[in-house]
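Sequence in, structure out.
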Amino acid sequence: MATSSSASDAIGNIHWLFGILQNIDVGLVVLNRRYEVQLWNGFMEDHSGHRASDTIGHDLFELFPDIPAAWLKRKIDSVFLLKHRAFATWHQRPYLMRFNSYRSITGDADWMYQNLTIFPLMALTGSIDHVCLIIYDVTDTALDEIALQQANAELDRLGRTDGLTGLHNRRSWELQLEQELRRHRRSGRTAALVMFDIDHFKRVNDTYGHQAGDAVIRAVAQAAADAKREVDIAGRYGGEEFGVVLIETDSSGAIQFAERLRQQIEATPIHHEGITINVTISLGVAVLESDITNCSGWIEQADQALYRSKKGGRNRVS
């Protein structure tokens, strides 16, 4: 009776264990050395759309051709060879198999983000002829981390951006200016600095109001952003004054850029709440030379040129 009871208990335990494997909330897949499926639990049935009876005995990569076969085979083969676990996270690959996300809390996800663990299965003889793949649904964790990264990136962008114009703010722009100065010292690469401001800007505010003044600043900033190349660095220096660093640009090229920007702003009326405002800008150009030892000196040279433009009658380049 004891033997019969023990056998019955063992069968019951196996039955319970099988029930656990079928209902556990992770994917379980057992493969042999030919990558043929030996176990396919309920999680895999629910999310893959393939029943166990359709998968067992079949090559995993023939069943799912979208799986990165070379990558996964390298991992599986290393487990067979070294008899140690292998891992992959959603950071490396978002998923092993593209399953739909099914949780309401993760409704924003286009797929189920997955972590993967592969470990060897030792037979009674001590040989390793099978491996087990455990697929974890980590969509909640992944979305939280992605949202945090996006929030941090946005905070970083806001920390570098002038809120009114979308250009670099003064601190960020000066850091870029410093980097360009260091590059010049290392490689001798030329660059030019254009400083400019809006002529008679106080008159705009006094006549049309500060909201109109903000509209003018935004329009001028947009014109500068459109006129520069992608590699150039535009920033709002303060108030109605702006700076543009022109990378690998000599004096002639910088003057051409400044004159083109001046003409564009002079010829483009700014419309705000039914009124039309015409403005001009004055500009100063300073090419980066070997005698400039710091950013303050470079800005000072461009400001002096800007001052000459203003003293000479405004709406001009010096």
